[in-house]
Design a protein that fits this description.
With about 525 residues, the chain is an alpha+beta fold. Helices cover about 30% and strands about 20% of the residues. The strands form 6 sheets. Strands 1, 2, 5, 6, 20, 21, 22 and 23 form an 8-stranded antiparallel β-sheet that branches. Strands 9-8-7-14 form a 4-stranded antiparallel β-sheet, with no helix packed on it. About 30% of the residues are buried.
Length: about 525
């Protein structure tokens, strides 16, 4: 929905609220017109139901407002003596329209000093759970979100099984765009495995101010731009429409920022003609193959010394003649070359000029592949590019989708001979409306990233991973061995090897418990 449509929708809601409550406002000692004035009517309603004024703020926070509306419906009728379970069910089932019946058909009396304490233990529990959900949803949506690493595309910086906290405030929290959604989940309700949201209506895109911009080589969580599947990694249901904020979340390294000219040469990224220098913790990996000397490998030794996932056939495989390793650094390969059972080793590189139709822009007309790609320009908001047959395929999805249908604009880019047409009108240039980024995994041959599906729009950015609070290795044996203790409570960014702050956390928790017991004994004394 565009801003004009939302304004009309908001106005209609105010009229509905006025028609359904003005008599109740009068019975509560207020003026009828006070039920009509936007925002002010909500402040007066809080006074009528004897609730704090700041509840009004919750009504303007997406997702939270959906939770708060039923609460206000119930509180309103209870303020006029309708306290039965039947009344509560009716007002919720009718989406608040039961208040019309109370307003016009019943002779109710306003209870000025209504007892706000729940009358039953069940009511107490419901009230506590409700506001715990509200508080958790605010934190989850606007401050910090938990995230799990599902793939090895950023090995060894982030490992499969790492549990992260993703900051929403570093780059500025993206306010929810989906108006009606089940709280505290993403696109699917757990257990029942059904869609957790209604596709319409949609709020306009808005991002709160952040305190830093995305820098080159930052690790970023973002909404997967081409997500059209009903569930993450379920490719059996393609063509499934998903709002931007309900697309599957991906985590990659941002190797190209707006305004960069980017190319990939033999697997290495070049920015504006200069090889990209990655942070100290980053480890670029490739696929290696080679010949053996007819002897078997000590699998545990491979993992301990070379960090090869020897127990995972997708990462490592061998027979008496040859082997392959999917995800190995050049430093580790140099060491592995001296292994007594290795006679030769080489890195797999798709040669320059070899065409891969699965590589962006996915039209089979460019001689690009995952190892030799580009060069391309990464669009920057407000910058203008020439539109010709070459740039047509690079920017078509940007113009039609990211700056078109996803923003409620009907853009159609076509070609007539050598002329580019936008909505049937010839154009020779285009000015971008938002920034774009280029995201790639450090594990170059085990990462589905921008080389496959192209640019990531600024409105798809979710946040910045800042902290690993838990890490689980499914390949290890034994419960205690599966926990990667050295990775618990480590920072994602920074220089040098990650340092675990887990012991300091335990010390802090022990101190807090001891202090709490001390205060309790002192109070009892």
């Amino acid at each position: 929905m565009i801003l004009t449509e939302w304004f009309i929708f908001f106005f209609v809601l105010q009229v509905i609220h006025f028609l359904g409550t003005w008599k109740l406002y009068v019975k509560a000692g207020r003026q009828a017109w006070e039920a009509l004035v936007p925002v002010y009517n909500a402040v007066i309603l809080m006074k009528i139901i004897n609730r704090p004024w700041w509840w009004v703020i919750l009504l303007f926070i997406p997702v939270i407002n959906v939770i708060m509306l039923p609460v206000l419906w119930v509180e309103t009728i209870r303020s006029f003596g309708k306290n039965t379970t039947t009344d509560t069910i009716l007002v919720i089932v009718t989406l608040g329209f039961y208040i019309f019946y109370v307003n016009y058909m019943l002779d109710v009396t306003y209870i000025e000093d209504r007892d706000l304490k729940p009358r039953t233990a069940t009511g107490e529990w419901v009230s506590s759970i409700l506001f715990a959900v509200v508080a958790a949803t605010i934190v989850h949506t606007y401050f910090m979100q938990p995230y799990t690493i599902p793939t090895g595309s950023l090995e060894r910086t982030l490992l499969v099984g790492d549990f992260l906290f993703v900051s929403k405030f570093h780059y500025g929290a993206r306010t929810p765009m989906t108006a009606v959604s089940f709280p505290m989940v993403h696109d699917t309700i757990p257990l029942v495995r059904t869609k957790s949201y209604m596709s319409k209506p949609q709020y306009p895109y808005f991002r709160l101010p952040g305190f830093q911009k995305i820098k080159r080589n930052d690790i970023v969580v973002f909404s997967w731009p081409i997500d059209t599947v009903s569930k993450f990694r379920d490719r059996s249901n393609l063509g499934h429409y998903k709002p931007i904020d309900k697309k599957s979340n991906y985590v990659k390294r941002c190797v190209g920022i707006p305004g960069d000219s980017l190319s990939v040469v033999d697997g290495y990224v070049y920015i504006n003609g200069t090889k990209n220098e990655l942070p100290e913790r980053a480890q670029v990996q490739f696929t290696y193959t080679g010949d053996t000397k007819g002897s078997s490998f000590n699998l545990q030794n491979l993992y301990d010394r070379y960090r090869i996932k020897a127990k995972d056939p997708q990462e490592f495989g061998y027979n008496e003649q040859s082997f392959y390793i999917k995800g190995m650094t050049s430093e580790a390969a140099a060491k592995f070359k001296n292994h007594p059972n290795v006679s030769s080793i080489k890195r797999i590189v798709s040669p320059k000029g070899q065409k891969d139709s699965n590589i962006f822009p996915n039209n089979g007309k460019v001689n690009w592949n995952s190892d030799n790609f580009g060069a391309i320009y990464i669009p920057e908001a407000g910058k203008t590019v020439k539109m010709d047959l070459k740039s047509f395929s690079l920017y078509r999805r940007i113009i039609e989708v990211y700056e078109g249908s996803e923003l409620g604009i009907d853009n159609k880019l076509t070609v007539n001979g050598t002329q580019i047409l936008l909505n049937g009108k010839p154009i020779d240039s285009y000015t971008f409306k938002q920034d774009y980024y280029w995201m790639m995994g450090d594990n170059r041959h085990n990462s589905e990233d921008s080389r496959v599906w192209g640019y990531v729009p600024a409105n798809h950015v979710v946040g910045k991973p800042v902290f690993v609070w838990f890490s689980w290795d499914t390949n290890a044996k034994g419960l205690l061995n599966k926990i990667r203790w050295e990775r618990m409570f480590t920072t994602v960014g920074g220089s040098g090897q990650p340092v675990s702050y887990f012991k300091y956390f335990l010390i802090l928790m022990a101190g807090w418990i001891i202090y709490g017991q001390y205060r309790k004994r002192k109070k009892n004394a």
